[in-house]
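subagent[fold] <- orchestrator: predict structure for attached chain, return tokens only, no commentary.
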Amino acid sequence: MRIRVVFVVQNKGATVPFHHQYLLAQYIRKIVETNPEYNENCPFYNFSGIKGQTKVSRNGLHFYSSKVTLVLASRNKTWIDFIIQQIFQHKEVKIGNLLLTPEFVEQEVHNHFEDSTKYICISPLVLCKPQEDATYQAKKFIAPDLDIFSDLLYEATIERMAQTNEYSDEELATFSKFQLVPDEFYLKKIKEDQKKFARIYTLSTENKQEVRGYTLPFTLYAPKKVQEFVFNCGLGTFSEEGYGMIDIVRPAGSTQRVETYFTP
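subagent[fold] -> orchestrator:
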């Protein structure tokens, strides 16, 4: 399931680093560590950056909206409920220089997945882990239209699905259809405008590992169960560090259905 935690901004104009996933990862990890059960056997989860009205400066992102949102996802409802409970035990949350007060929680409603789905990235995709990457370095740029781009994402996805112990080897073998096709118009436009969609990011680990993250729209061809898994648990690696969160591209004029999930 996917939820949106809505916070009230207490100090408009305050900043967080442009890439602040590591701060959110630390925040969520501290919550998880308060419960031995989740600390030892934590389910796969994923989260976005802080979403709100911003302006960019040398100091980072300045937030000027009165409210901001954090999208959080997991296939484990009990884990989601625990995180919500812990968040609302505190009247104030500090992320960077931003002071936030949790207000309420919404649930995104999405019960139908297709074998072909268009997505956008709301946090960067990371293809592989540095210590497990024998052929390609984790910082090396790999063009999204190359087969190896999809292959690395497929390997990461199947490995994570296997680790849940919810799929048999026979079922995992049926998930071999997996292809990511980037939006050609977007890539062309990015190149013409001399902008970047792939950057180097530093993980929130003690040894300061660096990885390359990709942010782009794409179509994913994969079985429905795989689509559901990556939607709720993230695509690629380091989902628990805030990488690989994706969202479905909806037809013009349509909006994501949400329902109130928790109000203190």
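orchestrator: received. Logging for downstream: Residues 250 and 256 are 8 Å apart (CA to CA). The chain has a mean pLDDT of 91.
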